[in-house]
Specification:
The protein is about 75% helix and about 0% strand. It has about 200 residues and is an all-alpha fold. The two termini are about 20 Å apart.
């Protein structure tokens, strides 16, 4: 892999990671255009670097929220921060399960399969449109059950082409959760998974 190829993939990751357009799907398309064979030998290193950059950016933006969650997690009192921290941990379980047991299989299934990736991108678009048009009141609070459902949406988004933020935020909206809280929860719940993927 050349420096230019690495930079191009980094730009793709940076531009698409925080938008509901599936960074993984666009990375697959970018790899196909650049030539998969030239990337295979350094693919694992590239993945770690891209995820590290994503984690650092997310941690910086949400540093106050993360600090409150960490403090709340070790608090004996039933504070909102402690409850939110437990919701984040619960939401990780479905994606962690899929990632541990099916990540390699899914990678092999989608590698170089642009038709499958594009189909998932279309599915993401349909989900976003459906959530946008749905008549919901956005008045419900986040609960443990809803956190797990959103976690299942995140697990499905392991498929390249399914936007993680798009899937989790859309699911939250369909569950009548406030949009601001939905976006905050979506980005905070992914940080432990990104750090785990780097390990």
């Amino acid at each position: 892999m050349t420096l230019i190829e690495s930079l191009l993939l980094g730009v793709i990751q940076g531009l698409t990671e925080f938008l509901p357009v599936s960074s993984s799907g666009h990375i697959e398309i970018g790899q196909a255009i650049l030539g998969t064979e030239s990337l295979k030998d350094q693919e694992e290193l590239l993945s770690v670097v891209l995820h590290a950059a994503t984690a650092l950016a997310t941690i910086f933006v949400f540093r106050k929220d993360i600090l409150a969650i960490i403090i709340g997690l070790f608090s004996k009192d039933a504070t909102e921060s402690r409850k939110f921290a437990l919701f984040v941990l619960a939401s990780m379980v479905p994606a962690a399960f899929v990632g541990i047991f099916f990540d390699d299989l899914l990678h092999q299934l989608f590698e170089g399969q642009l038709i499958l990736v594009c189909a998932m991108l279309l599915l993401t678009g349909a989900l976003l449109l459906f959530a946008d048009k749905a008549k919901t009141e956005h008045t419900q609070e986040l609960t443990l059950g809803k956190a797990i459902i959103i976690g299942i949406a995140q697990a499905i988004a392991i498929l390249p082409g399914i936007s993680r933020s798009g899937a989790t935020i859309s699911t939250s909206i369909l569950l009548n959760i406030d949009k601001a809280q939905a976006a905050r929860f979506s980005f905070l719940m992914v940080i432990p998974l990104i750090l785990g993927k780097m390990a």
